[in-house]
Amino acid sequence: MQPFTKLTGLVMPMDRVNVDTDQMVPKQFLKLLTREGYGRVLFYDWRYLPGEKPNPDFVLNYPRYKGASVILAQANFGCGSSREHAPWAILDCGFRAILAPSYADIFYNNCFKNGILPVTLSNEQIDELFRRTAANEGYAVTVDLEQQVVTDDKGLRYPFTVDPFRRECLLKGLDDIGLTLVHEADITAFEKKNLHVPAMSSPLDVKFHQ
Questions:
Q1: Type and span of the H or E element at 190
Q2: Which of 1, 13, 139, 190 has CA atoms 20 to 30 A from the CA of 203?
Q3: Which CATH superfamily groups domain 6-196?
């Protein structure tokens, strides 16, 4: 997993509450065998017209937000089913950070496990970010996980908090597998010491008593 320390990126606003994972990745796309390729289907039903023609009225297709790496969202972002494909698609589409007032719990946890930083800010702070994004084409923010602060070049500064364990894992790029491999030497030593069971010479070595 790619570490996250500090990101300066273009902001894409998604001014909808209760954006659910079923809209992020519709069910018919849940059969890909790897995490790659889901970016193309992110928000598929909103993003495309019949024939996969880009919908010009959907924000992800606006030219001014091309190359955005920060999603600005509203309350309860990532609700719906628990599918991990949703953060896979967000990451594959180029987004590394999300700013919202609240998230669905499972989606929030899955973001950290996939190298995405979901920042929680107040409703008032989110509203101000929406205003700035609308008023300034090319609006960008810096999301600094080390300092735990969101800033822009116009004097905005919003501190945020992240669970210390999640913060450390994201700073070091450790997903669940990576976190386990940190202790690989200790695990190997334990297995050699405690889990060695001599093989039986014959099945007849096991005796059953009537």
A1: helix 184-194
A2: 190
A3: Aconitase, domain 4 (3.20.19.10)
